[in-house]
Amino acid sequence: MMRHLILMIAHWTNPFFLWYFTSINVIYTVFMIIGAFGILSRRKELAAEDLTELLSSESMPEFTFVIPVYNESENVLNTIFNLLNLTYRYKKLVIINDGSIDKTFDILLKSLELIKIPQYFENRLPTQKIRAVYQSKLHPEIIVLDKDHGGKFDAQNAGVNALRSEYFISVDADTFIEDAGFEALIRPILTSPETIAVGAGVRIVNSCTIEYHRITTARFPQKFLPAFQEIEYLRSFMLRQGLSSINGVFVIAGAFGVFSRHLILQVGGYCNSVSEDMEIIIRLHHYMKKFRLPYKIEYLPDPVAWTIGPSTLKSLGKQRSSWHFGILESLWHHKRLFFNPFYGFFGLFIFPFAVICEAFEPVVECIAWIYVLITLSLGLLNVHFLLLLLMVSFGYTIIYAIFCLLLEELSFRRYPSMRNLLALLGSNLVENIGYRQITVYWRLRGFWRFFKEIGRIRKESKRLNKLY
Fold it and tell me: What are the tens digits of pLDDT across the range 211-263?
């Protein structure tokens, strides 16, 4: 009886699993091809682009770096001086000390020679209490806000309140910016007035050498964990490049992103979300589509920002669980977009893609492997099904990553030796054995946290729905 039941289940589930993973791979292939054309086009632009005259113009827009810091005593000064050394002249820094309990604020106070100044801005976005506002004697373009702890989203809202420039750049305190790449960000803002946000490539800086404002990758990677993360970053940013071509980018990395201050204020600022970087992008789509406003959210493939990746499985697992929880949280906040024709192509295709292919993929993969183990233990495993599942799941992932790596190398040449390429290619092969399975477990923990906090999430969703 049990055998007959499992055979009946297999009759329906085998085609579903193959259809699901094949469909995802076909969609990724389409975005990969679109993204490849975008990157090759960008390569031609880089060869012909000369921003020297443009950058020397007196009419260039001012950008303000918004840097939330919480217990970042080891990294904060490196990040600040990296930004100060950028050759772009029209820049300011707003650093928000979000109630750090280590020596972060003391380091800022002494190293930057901070002096207290009156609060010069209105709190247009509600935040935790601002204790004091400071300006650097050494670098007058630096403003430091000292506030009660409220989380990253709260610190970013405080930074947006303190802005005076039209555009701001959200930067993590452990992120480093390359000079040439940063200058490339100016182009879409100047050439397209409809551009409301810009993202760019983020790479792993672990074991790289930081020289002034240039990252040297000659020693990368030295360990498997950063290499795995670099491969994941390359795959995800290739997807975003493809989405950018159809104005469908639904996440810009929190480590680095350019935004219009006016619009962030208009949509109510950042919300209390683990993935505030994803939520704010979906909210911008939501807002612009709702009011039928022309807009463009662009992603550049240029490796502009370099961030420190988790160096242990424990810290990486915590990060990935939080990321997936944030994806679920963000999608829940904007669930009215799901297959809603009012929101156009974004509502009919992009948002459902994020739900079905991104959010629920670990659930389907986990069920698939449980099914394989059960049928294997009962001697009912269909070998042809298993081989097809491995081919469409693992095989495609390997090919996709190899393609991304080769395209990255042809376009930007960030890995100068054969050793770099072979190490990354080897990591790409190894990650499917053990690492991929544990990432599924980490992402499933994100589901568990989501269900535990559903009450708070619903409350936040109601608040967001009242903003516009």
Answer: 656 677 666 677 778 778 887 887 887 888 889 889 999 988 877 889 999 99
Residue with tokens 């009012």: 342
Domain covering 27-61+166-356, topology: Spore Coat Polysaccharide Biosynthesis Protein SpsA; Chain A (3.90.550)
Q: Residues with Cβ < 8 Å from 305, sequence gap 6 or more?
A: 171, 175, 176, 177, 178, 181, 200, 201, 202, 203, 253, 255, 256
Name the residue with tokens 């810290």.
Answer: 315
| Whole-prediction pTM | 0.90
Instruction: Decide if 67 contacts 80 (C-beta within 8 A).
Output: yes
Determine contact, residues 164/64, Cβ cutoff 8 Å. yes
Q: Which phi and psi angles does 459 have, rounded to 5°?
A: -65, -45
In order of 33, 55, 93, 141, 297, the CA distances from 62 in angstroms are 35, 12, 11, 11, 19
Strands 296-307, 195-204: parallel, antiparallel or unpaired by DSSP? parallel
Ranges of each domain in the chain: 27-61+166-356
Residue recorded with tokens 């699901």 = 20
Class of residue 451 by CB neighbours under 10 A (exposed 0-12, middle 13-18, buried 19+) = exposed
Sort strands 142-147 and 91-98 into parallel, antiparallel or unpaired: parallel
